[in-house]
Design goal:
Rossmann fold; 2 domains; seven-stranded mixed β-sheet; two-stranded antiparallel ribbon; 11 helices
Length: about 280
């Protein structure tokens, strides 16, 4: 039974609570990781997903920053042996440690992500190889479109590359503002990320890859010869086997991996020759 009590949403945490039970069931059905499984929920809020997720998993961990909401969740679900709640900022949580502690072979990450910290949460997930088999998120529709955007699309950017690098991403369905309280000013969408992506195994130097991508997309309208110039002197930049007139949004993930490998090889060769002329 849904609790009759209503929490006053806090704007500074970007709280918009889902109030549609049918949509909640549809989101939970989108989690297809087999049992036995751990489910980690980001921002359980009023518990509309929590109630249904608890019925589908062997172990549940919710991460809720709002103490008022956390108290209500504990009162409602605390009697369940497989329920655990962390009153914490999700950006400070170790996903890897949560999965390790659960000791289950399968794990999923679920959440109606606060729109003001969606990108930080996603990039946190991509900091290392995600320890989950799947993630199902509600996000702003514009963000969902960026997550699934192909190369050459106007919305293809840094987030698109990282999503394709670490996961196989699907935009499942859109969600209107009217199903939330308070209604947001934007449309939402539910996305599913399946881990791992076969491309992740190709990463040889993650630090360099991150640097190349951030440097390039920081100047996404510039040609590669300009956006990559802080990383390589011109005498080495010209040796790259790629059209330097291309712009960052025109390269596929495979091309970014290949480009990073080339940069690493040129760096090794240059240092081996004692020139030591590449930027640190």
């Amino acid at each position: 039974m849904e609790t009759p009590e209503r929490h006053r949403p806090k704007k500074f945490w970007g709280q918009h609570f889902l109030r549609d039970a049918n949509l909640a069931r549809k989101i939970v059905r989108s989690v297809t990781v087999p049992s036995p499984r751990l489910v980690v929920e980001i921002g359980p809020g009023e518990g509309i997903l929590t109630e249904r997720l608890l019925a589908t998993c062997e172990h549940y961990v919710g991460v809720e920053i709002d103490r008022d909401l956390a108290d209500r969740l504990e009162q409602r679900f605390g009697h369940l042996s497989h329920f655990r709640l962390l009153v914490q900022d999700v950006l400070e949580v170790s996903f890897t440690e949560l999965v390790r502690q659960a000791g289950l072979p399968n794990a999923a990450l679920v959440g109606n992500l606060p729109y003001n910290i969606t990108s930080p949460i996603l990039f946190k997930l991509f900091e290392a190889n995600p320890p989950f088999q799947q993630a199902v998120f509600m996000v702003q529709k514009e963000v969902a479109q960026r997550m699934v955007a192909p190369p050459g699309n106007k919305t293809y950017g840094l987030l698109s590359v990282y999503c394709r690098l670490f996961a196989r991403v699907e935009l499942l369905f859109t969600v209107p503002p009217a199903v939330f309280f308070p209604p947001p000013q934007v449309q939402s969408a539910v996305v599913r990320l399946n881990f791992p992506s076969p491309l992740a195994a190709r990463i040889q130097n993650r630090t360099l890859l991150d640097r190349v991508l951030h440097q390039a997309f920081q100047h996404r309208r510039k040609m590669l010869r300009n956006s990559l110039s802080p990383l390589l002197p011109s005498r080495l930049l010209s040796k790259l086997n790629i059209d330097l007139r291309l712009r960052p949004e025109q390269l596929s993930v495979e091309q970014w991996l290949d480009l990073t490998e080339q940069i690493q090889q040129l760096k090794n060769l240059d240092q081996g020759n004692g020139a030591n002329s590449l930027s640190d």
